[in-house]
Design goal:
This protein has 129 residues and is an alpha+beta fold. The protein folds into two domains: 3-41, no CATH class; 62-128, no CATH class. It has two helices and seven strands. The chain has helices spanning 25-41, 91-108, and strands at residues 3-6, 12-16, 19-23, 62-67, 72-79, 83-89, 126-128. It has a four-stranded mixed β-sheet. Strands 1-2-3 form a three-stranded antiparallel β-sheet. The longest helix has 18 residues, at 91-108. It is elongated, with a radius of gyration of 20 Å.
């Protein structure tokens, strides 16, 4: 079994069968990205249904870029452990998500005017290109 531990210098040490390797945050991010790439190629696909909720990132930073030519949008979400995750959404899915968010606003009784203008850190932006 693969064992992991945080070293005093902030690096992550991974051990298996008496062998160990140490990774900086950037090196570990590259390994995680590589493993995710390899996972996509495995014959057993990622399950269609999401697993039980165990860990939640609260209020993640995100950016949205739109492409007027393809009518698609690039949604980038920042996960505190996995880094930036990128999702390209076609126009049909953007419209479906719009309907879903409008339903959520209605169901929760949210009034956008009661929140005023967003004054937090520059975390959310849309870039048209």
């Amino acid at each position: 079994m693969l064992k992991s531990r945080m070293k005093p210098n902030g690096n992550i040490e991974l051990s298996i069968g008496g062998e160990s390797m140490s990774f900086t945050a950037q090196e570990l991010e590259k390994q995680i990205e590589y493993l995710a790439h390899m996972r996509r190629q495995m014959p057993e696909p990622v399950p269609v249904d999401p697993p039980k909720v165990e860990h939640v990132v609260v209020n993640p930073a995100y950016t949205i870029r739109t492409d007027k030519v393809t009518k698609s949008s690039l949604l980038r979400l920042r996960h505190s452990g996995l880094g930036w995750l990128n999702f390209e959404l076609p126009a049909e899915e953007v419209l479906q998500m719009r309907r879903a968010w409008i339903d959520i606003v209605y169901k929760l009784g949210l009034d956008p005017s009661s929140f005023g203008e967003y004054t937090g850190p520059e975390r959310r932006r849309s870039n048209l290109h």
